[in-house]
Specification:
- With about 425 residues, the protein is of the alpha/beta class.
- The protein is elongated, with a radius of gyration of 31 Å.
- It has 3 domains: about 50 residues; about 230 residues, 3-Layer(aba) Sandwich (Rossmann fold), CATH 3.40.50.300; about 90 residues.
- The strands form 2 sheets. The chain has a 6-stranded mixed sheet, with helices on both faces.
- The longest helix has about 50 residues.
- The termini are far apart.
- The structure holds adenosine-5'-diphosphate (ADP) and magnesium ion.
- The site of magnesium ion has 4 residues, from helix 4.
- The site of adenosine-5'-diphosphate has 11 residues, from helix 4.
- This is Putative ABC transporter ATP-binding protein.
- GO terms for molecular function: ATP binding; ATP hydrolysis activity.
- Its EC number is 3.6.3.-.
């Protein structure tokens, strides 16, 4: 019956859990590191008493001390990939603004705002603080009145993360209760799993909201947002309190979302590869820029969005930095090329150092064997053995020398 359908309107599929994949990646990296540590320790052990290698042994010991030891997530406490599963499609034009304007008392926030956002588009609202990004979002949400005409498309279902969303949580509830109160349908059986997915595993879910950090509150508010099927996400500064890892998780989820998205953000890394259109707020205007966030930064001749705070769009021609587009794209390209070259060089050096070490080991074994044979009555008379021993020693010396040079070079390139 219809009633039943409504009971189950929230699907657990909203959370695609890829815990296993992430753990396996971590395990592989962890094992690699363990092998590297083992190799280094072996090396130190092997050369510890050799005066000629004192410097290299010392440098390896230092290297060991510097290694940041990886950890593998607890099985049940892992950050997961999450997914917004869209509700049924909205109409083709989720938002159409026609001469939208907003005035607070005598203060004009913006006017003549005209744009259309197409279904499935992901756009960024950028601009310095106080230029009206949140205000336009509130207009779209019908939270405040405004001038002009703003049309929402057919069947638009909005998931809204307000700029102060994290502060709007009820402080007297626990993490678990906060979600328990809003979750309906079969997802209720999975609340603990979902909380675990957002790093509220185990006892963390019994914490009161009032003791949570900004990042934890943001994550919790994000979970609430995920509990509703939507086809239009409006995220007003969602990354403000998030750590790198949670930011990545969120970015992946927003990227994978097939609905329409407006993100207000100052974070160019977060917006990169996510937004395909940028709306610039400033001086009472909203200007549309086609292309991604780096195209926008290039057009504005700035390197990051915080610089917008220093440059108002109306004053742009006088105030802008003196870097040309070509300069910026060249310098980005150069940095990238240099990095790439250096990485290549490091890889090559690492291999050469490794090869040298294998060779040293082999030569040492051969020398030892030769010495054993020379110590037998028959071997003692064998001049060929003696010559071979000298040659091996000479080779060893050369290889150690080569190894020393390569190690120094590697250290220099890698630092
Ligand atoms: N309720 C309000 N009453 C009066 N002025 C407001 C109100 N809300 C916001 N403003 C003003 O409107 C401007 C735009 O604010 P806002 O949309 O929050 O900017 P942004 O999100 O781009 O940082 C600011 O100058 C702000 O002081
Ligand atoms: Mg704002």
């Amino acid at each position: 019956s219809c009633g039943k359908i409504y009971d189950y309107r929230v699907s657990y599929n909203q959370f695609t859990v890829l815990r296993k994949e992430r753990r396996e990646q971590q395990l592989r990296a962890y094992e690699n590191q363990q092998k590297q540590i083992q190799d280094t320790e072996d090396f130190i052990e092997r050369f510890r008493y050799k005066a000629t290698k004192a410097v290299q042994v010392q440098s390896r010991i230092k290297q060991l001390e510097k290694i940041e030891r990886m950890e593998v997530d607890e099985e049940d406490n892992t950050a997961l990939k999450l997914k917004f599963l869209p509700a049924s499609q909205s109409g083709s034009y989720p938002v159409i603004c026609e001469d939208v304007e907003k005035i607070y008392g005598k203060h004009l926030v913006f006017r003549n705002v005209n744009f259309t956002i197409n279904r499935g588009e992901k756009v960024a609202f950028v601009g310095k603080n106080g230029e009206g990004k949140s205000t336009l979002v509130k207009c779209i949400m019908s939270e405040i009145d405004f001038g002009g005409k703003l049309t929402l498309g057919h069947n638009v279902q909005i998931g809204y993360f307000a700029q102060n969303q994290a502060q709007m949580l009820d402080e007297s509830y626990t993490v678990f209760d906060t979600i328990d109160r809003v979750a309906t349908g079969d997802i209720r059986l999975k609340i603990r799993d979902i909380l675990g997915a957002f790093m509220f595993g185990g006892e963390a879910s019994d914490k009161k909201v009032k003791v949570l950090s900004g990042g934890e509150r943001t994550r919790l508010a994000m979970i609430k947002l995920l509990l509703e099927p939507v086809n239009f996400l409006i995220l007003d500064e969602p990354t403000n309190h998030l750590d790198m890892r949670s930011k990545d998780v969120l970015k992946d989820a927003v990227r994978a979302f097939s609905g329409t998205v407006i993100v207000v953000s100052h974070d160019r890394e977060f917006l990169d590869g996510l937004a395909s259109k940028v709306y610039e707020f400033g001086g009472g205007h909203v200007k549309e820029h086609l292309g991604g966030i780096y195209d926008f930064l290039q057009t504005k001749k700035i390197e990051n969005l915080n610089e917008l705070n220093a440059v108002s769009p109306v004053m742009e021609p006088e105030n802008k930095k003196k870097l040309s587009n070509a300069d910026i794209s060249l310098s980005i390209k150069q940095t990238y090329e240099v990095q790439k070259e250096n990485n290549k060089k490091i890889k090559k050096l690492e291999k050469q150092v490794g090869d040298c070490e294998t060779k040293i080991e082999k030569l040492e074994t051969e020398i030892r064997e030769t010495e054993h044979r020379m110590a037998t009555p028959k071997g003692a008379l064998d001049m060929g053995l003696y010559e071979q021993h000298q040659q091996l020693k000479h080779q060893l010396e050369k290889t150690v020398e080569e190894w020393e040079q390569l190690s120094v070079e590697l250290e220099r390139s890698a630092s």
